Amino acid sequence: MKRVLEPELMTEPEQARAYAEADFAEPHSRYIELFLQKFPDRPERARVLDLGCGPGDVTRRLARACPGYQIVAVDGSPAMLRLARRLTAREPDLRDRIHYRKGYLPKARIPRGPYDVILATSFLHHLADPMILWQAVRKYGRTGTIVLVADLCRPRTPAHARRLVERYAAGEPAVLRRDFHRSLLAAFTPAEVRAQLQKANLGELSVEVISDRHLLVSGRLHG
Questions:
Q1: What sign does the dihedral 32-33-34-35 (CA atoms) show?
Q2: pLDDT of 42 higher than 90
Q3: Fewer beta carbons within 10 Å, N or C terminal of the chain?
Q4: What pLDDT is attached to residue 23?
């Protein structure tokens, strides 16, 4: 199945609200578990760059798991960032460690790196040009920077995509089911992501399928 582009930004308040209220506990907690498992030698204190943070659920989960981390979380959607700030404000111990910024890659005004950790979850499939993400990884990282990019994996057929929507979003609002279907069609295959990494001179990063709908890119930059 060929890739079908979707809008890069989720700017509708209804979209942001549905996304923030949806139950992503299973995959989002899994991302943090994988981060902790794959990088047992991670620094106790680190500067983290979270690209495409959305309403900040994964951002906050990482901050809770790693209390020594200062996180710059970037998203291009004002609606998403309003929710992220509101939800983070409920947790006083996180408010001073997570700094949300509005920015649209590649022109986003991001505090200067390098960062010790670069994170991106459910962001890659939104990009018409995926190299924008990998160029940002190269720009804001350094030798030894930890990279964790989790995203959807494109199904083999349209029918498979519809089955995944019914399996995981049947009880969700119509706008979320619509956007989940669009995102599945816009996602990349593992082979496509590996080709992107080779093109970006990031061949040290590995790509693996971690569920029936997700893939993970992880590793440390070689410089």
A1: positive
A2: yes
A3: C
A4: 59
